[in-house]
């Protein structure tokens, strides 16, 4: 199954006989729904009622992302009304031991994949920091196995993520000013790509969870909260480093993304009025890509009221999506089926494996890890 992304601002998706037509000023794009799984609309893209009905009748879901990649919502046809499966899911949720064991397996899978990526950087970059972080991740793995409750487990997961990003930044030029993970808003090109990529991955996992008839809000590692799809957040954890993080590393190290693929907005907070002013900065003249003698923390101290919000522009999104889809289409050996599978399909297979754990057909959840 395929995914189509529409990133051009101001266009509208129409139904044209038996296919979709994307119309804009001096812009036309035909989309055929045969073998289409999802249509992802990024930014200010409109869609007609007729186009939505056509998509739903053909089993195609529609995902809406903000221009910065934030997941806004999704639409699909009739839900998979698997009531029996959901009752099983609710019973398992009441079992604290089941939830803890599932959460442990999820965290272990994530950390193993984090460690694999860190060890690769230690070899290729000859980084002492990466070597140190790999050792610490091994220690955190031991603590995860010994965790007695979800609260402590979440703490270990957070510790592993902080350690990982100490090493991950070693994979990039210091000129990019990527020092740590910053989410809202992303303050540098690397964080902009990570945020956008995680939202695309999230929409993929959420679609897989919903298509199987599961309640996406009932997770194990992530606490349940109104409006939060905790199960989708759980099951995407093991895929973060191997899908998104590896793609981002490649895009910068192979110089596929450049400074003119980003939008830089200077956000000035005026305390006395409580207002926020956004000024777009010319990326070609921006200093965000230029090396500085001082660290990012020092620049924040010197200019405490200035924050730079960085987003991928349309051309940057096209490049990013192209290579992320290429990564998802990579064939990798999948142990549970003992054959080569596309990474995109493995996401769906892992959801099916989780269901087998709910039903008691599999004793333990086995996360997908790479070597």
Your description of this structure?
The chain is built from 11 helices and 13 strands. It is globular and about 60 Å long. The model is unreliable at 270-305 (pLDDT under 50). It starts with a strand and ends in a 13-residue tail after the last helix. By secondary structure, the protein is an alpha/beta fold. A hairpin with a 2-residue loop joins strand 2 and strand 3 (19-24). The protein has helices at residues 49-57, 83-93, 96-125, 128-146, 150-168, 189-211, 230-236, 240-253, 296-302, 314-328, 343-358; strands at 2-6, 12-16, 19-24, 27-31, 36-42, 46-47, 61-65, 71-75, 262-270, 275-281, 306-312, 331-334, 339-342. The longest helix is centred in the N-terminal third of the chain and has 30 residues, at 96-125. The protein has a 4-stranded mixed beta sheet, sandwiched between helices. It has a 4-stranded mixed beta sheet with strand order 4-3-2-6. It has 2 domains: 2-75, Ribosomal Protein L15, Chain: K, domain 2; 83-255 and 318-358, Four Helix Bundle (Hemerythrin (Met), subunit A), CATH 1.20.120.920. Helix 3 (96-125) runs antiparallel to helix 4 (128-146), helix 3 (96-125) packs parallel to helix 8 (240-253) and helix 4 (128-146) packs antiparallel against helix 5.
């Amino acid at each position: 199954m395929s995914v189509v992304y529409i990133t051009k601002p101001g266009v509208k998706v129409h139904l044209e006989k038996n296919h979709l037509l994307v119309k804009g000023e001096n812009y036309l794009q035909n989309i055929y729904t045969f073998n289409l799984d999802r249509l992802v609309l990024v930014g200010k893209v409109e869609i007609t009622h007729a186009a939505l009905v056509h998509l739903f009748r053909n089993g195609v879901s529609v995902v809406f992302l903000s221009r910065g990649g934030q997941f806004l919502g999704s639409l699909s046809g009739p839900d998979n009304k698997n009531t029996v499966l959901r009752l099983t899911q609710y019973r398992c949720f009441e079992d604290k031991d089941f939830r803890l064991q599932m959460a442990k397996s999820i965290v272990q899978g994530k950390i193993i994949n984090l460690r694999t990526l860190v060890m690769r950087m230690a070899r290729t970059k000859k980084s002492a920091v990466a070597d140190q972080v790999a050792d610490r991740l091994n220690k955190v793995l031991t603590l995860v196995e010994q965790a007695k409750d979800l609260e402590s487990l979440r703490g270990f997961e957070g510790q592993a993520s902080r350690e990982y990003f100490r090493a991950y930044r070693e994979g990039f030029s210091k000129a990019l000013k990527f020092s740590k993970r910053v989410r809202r808003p992303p303050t540098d090109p690397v964080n902009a790509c990570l945020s956008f990529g995680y939202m695309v991955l999230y929409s993929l996992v959420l679609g897989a969870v919903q298509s199987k008839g599961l309640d996406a809000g009932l997770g194990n590692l992530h606490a349940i909260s109104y409006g939060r799809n905790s199960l989708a957040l759980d099951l995407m954890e093991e895929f973060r480093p191997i899908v998104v993080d590896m793609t981002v590393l490649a895009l910068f190290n192979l110089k596929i993304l450049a400074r003119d693929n980003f939008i830089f907005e200077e956000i000035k907070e005026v305390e006395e009025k409580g207002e926020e002013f956004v000024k777009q900065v010319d990326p070609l003249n921006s200093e965000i890509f230029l090396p500085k003698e001082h660290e990012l923390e020092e620049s924040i101290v010197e200019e405490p009221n200035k924050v730079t919000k960085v987003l991928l522009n349309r051309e940057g999104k096209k490049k990013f999506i192209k290579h992320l889809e290429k990564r998802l289409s990579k064939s990798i050996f999948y142990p549970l089926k003992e054959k080569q599978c596309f990474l995109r399909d493995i996401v769906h297979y892992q959801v099916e494996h989780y269901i087998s754990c709910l039903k008691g057909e599999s004793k333990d959840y086995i996360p997908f890890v790479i070597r």
